[in-house]
Amino acid sequence: MxxxxxxxxFDLWHHKGRTMLAVxxxxxxxxxxxxxxxxxxxxxxxxxxxxxAVNPSHMNVILxxxxxxxxxxxxxxIPGIAGVEPLNGSTxxxxxxxxxxxxxxxxxxxxxxxxxxxxxxxxxxxxxxxNQTIGVERITSDYYGIDIGDEVIFDMPGTDRSFPVTGKIxxxxxxxxxxxxSAYFFVDAEGMARLGIPQGQFFQLLxxxxxxxxxxxxxxxxxxxxxxxxxxxxxxxxxxxxPNEHWARPVLLGITVVLQILAVVSLFTSVIIVINxxxxxxxxxxxxxxVIKAIGGTSGTIVRVYMTGVLVFGLLALLIALPLxxxxxxxxxxxxxxxxxxxxxxFQAAPxxxxxxIIAAVATPLLAAIWPVRNGARITVREAIASYGLxxxxxxxxxDRFIERFSDTLLSAPYAIALSNVFRRKGRLLLTQGVLVxxxxxxxxVLTLAASMTATLNNELxxxxxxxxxxxxxxxxxxxxxxxxxxxxxxxxxxxWFTVTGTILREGERLQDTGGLGxxxxxxxxxxxxxxxxxxxGCWLQPDDSGNVVVISQDSAxxxxxxxxxxxxxxxxxxxADEWQIIGxxxxxxxxxxxxxxxxxxxxxxxxxxxxxxxxxxxxxxASDKSAAATEQxxxxxxxxxxxxxxxxNPFFSRTKPQDRExxxxxxxxxxxxxxxxxxxxxxxxxxxxxxxxxISVVExxxxxxxxxxxxxxxxxxxxxxxxxxxxxGLLSWLISVPLAYVIARPVASALGQTIFNVDLDxxxxxxxxxxxxxxxxxxxxxxxxxxxHSAARVSVRESLAYA
Length: 804
What we know:
single chain; 6-stranded mixed barrel; 11-stranded mixed beta sheet; 4 domains
């Protein structure tokens, strides 16, 4: 075996370019496996550990009216309530300099920062806030450049006041600013009192239950709501969280599944490249195989020689991909975790990813090489001497003869030769097309997924004809708030809505709902065009609807086996209970944080059921100027107008449509960027595969190139032949990729939508991406053809005769 070992090492070293191509091809797939699976494992597990480390609450209950500490503590008497911590949160306008524009921010108050029960805030630098100072959230500080010692101006009742920043605080549950999350500041009880919430009064509760389950938490939330309702305290909404899983896990889970699929696809393309590369080696060394067999070598010997070479390719690829994949996985994890305010500074490598990389680098190439190595090992001495490559039977079937006739009739000589050469080795053509088609399909699919997410969000927002939605702390007279709003310049149309919370019943039994707080009955004015949700079954409210008819969420219908035409009872507590008929079910994509189930009914029917005529607790406004700046200014003008008339607007819920749009698109922007990055990688891998295929073609046609040289073919003609061959392969793969991507992308978009939104995405095939990929694949084909074409052009007549 010593001489054969020498041959293995000679082949590896003497053909350094080929060795590098094979190693990099395998390393690309192994790297993708290590980087993506390593990122997924580290990302999700670290997020969960960070979440568990802050003693997370099970639900965050937001109240419509404040309660005192005694009332909050009394809730622990409810069976199953393990702990309650009251706090306050609000929104506020701030700016850094007097001449700056006002910006929106969230304000958080803990009654005792030193003795927190749940959702622990961590002081990262400086001091906790006191009555004269504020704290800034850590990622707010980094993103907005607000540091300790800076002065922040708050828009306070009746005046503006600046506060010094004395501490940086980590909040475990802040929306990332990169996704559109607002700035976060912290004050103590005295600071919150300056904003109109007296000390000892709380609008928010952190609650835990024992034992924990999602269903039990929702059940206990309903019990809290019923208990507080006896004291005329309403619950606005509840945010639930699993104490064992990070709150952002559901959003990232669907994306990580897509990433892992693409990593496996990338490895598969590497497998095809290994087959092509191994075929190239055996094609070039057919004469050597004949010599080895002539001096007594067996087929087993041939297999050991070439499989050893493939094993070395895999091990070299592992040396490159293993550390690189670990570093990129750690870096990617660190960057992603930083978005969610999680520190990750100690380098780690995911054990599963390392094992998968070893398998991918060692076992996968060996399995991929079995077919070409066995074919090469079975060649006899006579076949090896008579042949200069595997195959060589082009022109023996009807398809080949059709290609020849078509080429000779319609194409000039270089084009005709290039087209014939594309189909000369059909097995290799299929393998090369496999790489290019996979690359093209993945490229088109990921861009179609991005387009489908964009279309879905756009369509959902388009169902809202209003541009501003403002909530009031307490119900107001409908005619008064509409009159005030209509007097503000820029208001095109205003509509007042009245909502009231309740409980859905059927035959006296409470039905399961999506939020756990029962229903929130929305009274929509007859003929309103302000909002029409996506209807799944039945129909939306009609102008001529009369009586107690409702449209409920599809989730509630599914949970309770309800259908259009069924009758339910809605218990509105002290306002009584009525029977309502379901006329439709809807599904929302960008649902608000409300954990009540919105149920829509005609406003007249809600008035009749509640005996609350001419009352409204929110308005929706259509603006004449729909730009982000104009709508934010209009919302501010509306708030000021209501404030001067002693109508308190709840800024926590009030938002503009551009703000919702920005938040939604920022949230999924990073996903689109990741998918686009993977699409580019797939294109590069496809180019490597094409380069390998054309390199084999150069080796196989050395004698043919010599013949062309001997009859006067110029360098440019020979290079053109190979470049055209590459371009034709690229064009063929494009023709296959487009319909294939169209077919595959639809079910993938549906699955992704169900994972993220619990509804199918609105499928939008990205036709622009089709043209982009055409340009890209032709460019990739050209670049991948340059080196083989240049090698072909350098073959002299003497070299071709020597090869022969």
